[in-house]
TrEMBL record:
Protein name: Histone-lysine N-methyltransferase SETMAR
Organism of this sequence: Habropoda laboriosa
Domain of life: Eukaryota
GO molecular function terms listed in the Swiss-Prot or TrEMBL record: nucleic acid binding
Amino acid sequence: YIGILRENLEVSLTKLGLENNFILEQDNDPKHTAKKTKKFFNSNHIPIIP
């Protein structure tokens, strides 16, 4: 999941003109709530709706 985000999130946000104006929404799937994923969001300043 983190690999997908690294590869696609920035590109998608740029195409949509949302580089600095977005909040990522996700469900409670284990890959979305894993400690490693939460650390990735925090270290990359990615705002999320839990």
